[in-house]
């Protein structure tokens, strides 16, 4: 049974994530303990609310450093919602720029759509070869609730490195990054823990791929 830590840094649907992971057979611990987060088989970084507040909470438990150390050792990390957004270089909310973890270049910014927030069920456009969405129909819907997102993928291709697999979604004509698969670092803008059977299937794919 995979040992999964859900990182508690004061932001996120911790119990929802815990229950969803237990549902697919993981042994789950919700904790802010840095040693446990470093040593777990898999780490989940959830996040809800404002980008700046999430980064403040993450920094309070040295979360960015933990994520970096895990990735350097090839140890899996899954970011969810704002937990995905903070993996990028920066976020801009209400004119305030906040530095993120910098695992990927790019800016989290307000969606440019007639109705914001983007709230409810939506399909996604997955790339060929995705392991995160393996076995899911292209019309599968996932649950989103957010006003901000990454609207441009800025990581330049590297000659000798396999490029990340980027999944996109559309809200009223505005495209944004819905998920990323990049070596041991995977992330979703939507909430798999609130996406019913589809979310459970996706979490099972994550566990299976890294267990």
From TrEMBL:
UniProt superkingdom: Bacteria
Catalytic activity reported: 5-[(5-phospho-1-deoxy-D-ribulos-1-ylimino)methylamino]-1-(5-phospho-beta-D-ribosyl)imidazole-4-carboxamide + L-glutamine = D-erythro-1-(imidazol-4-yl)glycerol 3-phosphate + 5-amino-1-(5-phospho-beta-D-ribosyl)imidazole-4-carboxamide + L-glutamate + H(+); L-glutamine + H2O = L-glutamate + NH4(+)
Pathway(s) of this molecule: Amino-acid biosynthesis; L-histidine biosynthesis; L-histidine from 5-phospho-alpha-D-ribose 1-diphosphate: step 5/9
Any single GO CC term annotated in Swiss-Prot or TrEMBL for this entry: cytoplasm
Record-annotated active site: 81 (nucleophile), 191, 193
Coiled-coil zones: none
GO molecular function, one term: glutaminase activity
Keywords annotated in UniProt: Amino-acid biosynthesis, Cytoplasm, Glutamine amidotransferase, Histidine biosynthesis, Hydrolase, Lyase, Transferase
EC number(s) reported in the record: 4.3.2.10, 3.5.1.2
GO BP, sorted A to Z: L-histidine biosynthetic process
Subcellular location: Cytoplasm
The keyword Nucleus is assigned to this record: no
One of the Pfam families matching this protein, by short name: GATase
Domain Glutamine amidotransferase: 5-207
Subunit structure and binding partners: Heterodimer of HisH and HisF.
NCBIfam families: IMP_synth_hisH
Described purpose of this protein according to its UniProt entry: IGPS catalyzes the conversion of PRFAR and glutamine to IGP, AICAR and glutamate. The HisH subunit catalyzes the hydrolysis of glutamine to glutamate and ammonia as part of the synthesis of IGP and AICAR. The resulting ammonia molecule is channeled to the active site of HisF.
PANTHER family: IMIDAZOLE GLYCEROL PHOSPHATE SYNTHASE SUBUNIT HISH
Protein name as catalogued: Imidazole glycerol phosphate synthase subunit HisH
Species of the source: Lentzea waywayandensis
